[in-house]
Amino acid sequence: MHTFPKHIFVGMSGGVDSSVAAYLLKQAGHQIEAVFMKNWETDDTDAYCSSAIDLADAETVCDQLNIKLHVINFSDRYWEKVFAHFLDEYRAGRTPNPDILCNKEIKFKAFLDYAKQHEARYIATGHYARLQYDHTGIRLLKGRDFEKDQSYFLYALDQSQLTHSLFPVGELLKKEVRAIATSLGLKNHAKKDSTGICFIGERPFKKFLNDYLPGEPGPIETIDGEVIGQHDGLMFYTIGQRQGLHIGGLKGKAEQPWYVANKDIKRNVLIVVQDNQHPALFKQSLIVSAIHWINQPPSLPLNTHAKIRYRQPDQACIIEAIQPSDEVHTQHAAYRVTFKQPQRAITPGQSIVFYQDEICLGGGMIRE
User: How many structural domains comprise the chain?
Assistant: First the structure.
């Protein structure tokens, strides 16, 4: 499908993956331009953000590869489409994953719109994922490097977005990408992969969130209802969390770590247990809200596999509709996912993504 030269805009992050993606496309004879997306207004002045460094790296690589670089500010759209949702989810006591919404609304929507306005036919990124074309449309596949596969973060993309997208490093292993960058003498050939939420960077998460959503302290209870401490606000904790609970030296209690087992939003109570394998940390099933299917919705019930967090091994499960048949696959539909094996720390607000072998079917947000 991409044999003939195309006009392609590459999302250039300053990292090695997008840099090699741009190089590969240029080597294939395509007309390449690069775009650096600025999504957070405080990047340039905040000590915890690396945007200025990333931009400098992107500029250096583009100079080395002789590619024109555009710098675009999407911060207003990011605030409206991604960050506002991020705050709403934390306010509701859930733990969101803004990177998934960023891909859907910014990288593969705002950026794609910008590229089309400049008469580019495709956008490309450094994601480790692959695309397959058949009579059903475009299928999203896991990257060949399963250790780096990023299809989990791309499940919310639709056919119109994938039709105009390219993932040049999806067929490569990470070590092969670094080897190419090293052979080219690219400045960022050994640059560490970015981690964490893009707009938070390396700053203390609790302090950052508290600047926007002041915490409401409340009691910490054992699963038996005994008060053993005080939390700083339910939004600061996630299911399965061990660090930051500040519980210890309790009379009559074993000196074992405590883990967050649940949040009682109505009572503003954090419920904790001891033992990493406590039964309260495990659930056999979950409820997921409106699932986005990348291709045609499958018939239900469906036996398949799923991940409830990035890099988790695929887990066998069955998806069943839990509403009248005429509401299945509507935006209000809800589904029950039952796993073959109980899953630890199922977290409302996070995404569950479904797979059949290496094909990413789609996913949705965990509600309970």
Answer: 3
